[in-house]
């Protein structure tokens, strides 16, 4: 099969790459950040940058879009992308980054080094990175990406313009999946769109991946297809489980939990996340909501530390049922 045929074949392309924005203006849901970044490019005055925020909200896309706009067709030769979570040690900073920063280049004032997941770097590697940023500040610009800026040492933060990317709005995600569905000639129902937005939780990458996966199951992408393919519980299932526990019906609540863990195949951490998102939709008074959040936080901590997921979630439901008795 030729490349052209492969490109047109169903499922041959990963949609998150096929529809990745090529310019800053194409990025949805981060208007204020895009405007500030564009002003740096327009003024030919790009500083070191630090992007922080969750997954799938545009950090890597913004970095590559900057390179494309600064260098045009030459962007790949002047843009080095490294993933710090794969290569955490000080040798990466000393070797690959320094070699790229030292390399000769023509026609441009600086080259760009993009270090993804920079919060995975050890403190020693970050200290080496700080010295490298100082040494090559005349001809190199660094763009660092991380989930938690608090894990980046202060000397690096002070050398960067910090941009905090927020989770994408429901409207931005809905607009993107509608656009892709129209291009791919997919029938996306209203409840299917709402399910994609809910399952994504502000993560555009997850929304697009879910849309592509759901589209392989049939010509229509509806609510049922989305929840099935993403192994996500319907919001009403989560709310019913908690409401039953609060009302003292532990057995019914536990049965719902067992269905989610066993039949739906959800992970305990995912259930915790959906519980947290549903707290203020339960219609309970503020004091009860605060107690629920406290117990969700405790269960989340224990699961993160390696405790049995089912035991911790059942203990959470039991504590809510006992409150009522």
TrEMBL record:
Keywords: ATP-binding, DNA replication, Nucleotide-binding
Record's keyword annotation contains Nucleotidyltransferase: no
Domain AAA+ ATPase per the UniProt entry, residue ranges: 45-169
Keyword match tRNA processing: no
Gene3D superfamilies, per the entry: 1.10.8.60, 1.20.272.10, P-loop containing nucleotide triphosphate hydrolases (3.40.50.300)
Binding site for ATP: 53-60
GO terms under biological process: DNA repair; DNA-templated DNA replication
Domain of life where this protein originates: Archaea
GO cellular component: DNA replication factor C complex
InterPro entries in the cross-refs: AAA+_ATPase, ATPase_AAA_core, DNA_pol3_clamp-load_cplx_C, DNA_Rep/Repair_Clamp_Loader, P-loop_NTPase, Rep_factor-C_ssu_arc, Rep_factorC_C, RFC_lid
A molecular function GO annotation: DNA clamp loader activity
Pfam families: AAA (PF00004), Rep_fac_C (PF08542)
HAMAP family: RfcS
Family, as annotated: Belongs to the activator 1 small subunits family. RfcS subfamily.
PANTHER family xrefs: REPLICATION FACTOR C / DNA POLYMERASE III GAMMA-TAU SUBUNIT (PTHR11669), REPLICATION FACTOR C SUBUNIT 4 (PTHR11669:SF20)
NCBIfam families documented for this protein: PRK00440.1 (NF001679)
Subunit note: Heteromultimer composed of small subunits (RfcS) and large subunits (RfcL).
Functional summary from the UniProt entry: Part of the RFC clamp loader complex which loads the PCNA sliding clamp onto DNA.
Name recorded for this polypeptide: Replication factor C small subunit
Species whose genome carries this gene: Halonotius pteroides
Gene: rfcS
């Amino acid at each position: 099969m030729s490349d052209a045929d492969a490109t047109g074949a169903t499922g041959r392309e990963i949609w998150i790459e096929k529809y990745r924005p090529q310019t800053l203006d194409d990025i949805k849901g981060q208007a204020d950040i895009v405007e500030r970044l564009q002003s740096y490019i327009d003024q030919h005055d790009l500083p070191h940058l630090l992007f922080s925020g969750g997954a799938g909200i545009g950090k890597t896309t913004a970095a590559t879009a900057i390179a494309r706009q600064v260098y045009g067709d030459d962007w790949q030769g002047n843009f080095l992308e490294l993933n710090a979570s794969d290569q955490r040690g000080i040798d990466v900073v000393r070797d690959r980054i320094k070699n790229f920063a030292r390399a000769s280049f023509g026609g441009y004032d600086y080259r760009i080094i993009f270090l993804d997941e920079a919060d995975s770097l050890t403190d020693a590697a970050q200290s080496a990175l700080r010295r490298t940023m100082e040494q090559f500040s005349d001809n190199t610009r660094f763009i660092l990406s991380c989930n938690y800026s608090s894990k980046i040492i202060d000397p690096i933060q002070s050398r960067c313009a910090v941009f905090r990317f927020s989770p994408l709005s429901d409207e931005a995600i809905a607009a993107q999946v509608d656009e892709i569905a129209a291009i791919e000639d997919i029938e996306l129902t209203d409840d299917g769109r709402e399910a994609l937005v809910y399952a994504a939780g502000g993560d555009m990458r997850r929304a697009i991946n879910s849309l592509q996966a759901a589209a392989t199951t049939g010509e229509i992408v509806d609510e049922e297809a989305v929840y099935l393919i993403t192994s996500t519980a319907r919001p009403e299932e989560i709310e019913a489980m908690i409401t039953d526990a609060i009302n003292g019906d532990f057995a019914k609540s536990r049965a719902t939990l067992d269905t989610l863990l066993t039949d739906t195949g959800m992970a305990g951490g995912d259930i915790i996340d959906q519980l947290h998102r549903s707290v203020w939709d339960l219609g309970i008074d503020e004091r009860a909501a605060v107690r629920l959040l406290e117990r969700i936080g405790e269960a989340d901590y224990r699961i993160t530390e390696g405790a049995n997921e089912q035991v911790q979630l059942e203990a959470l439901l039991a504590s809510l049922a006992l409150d009522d008795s």
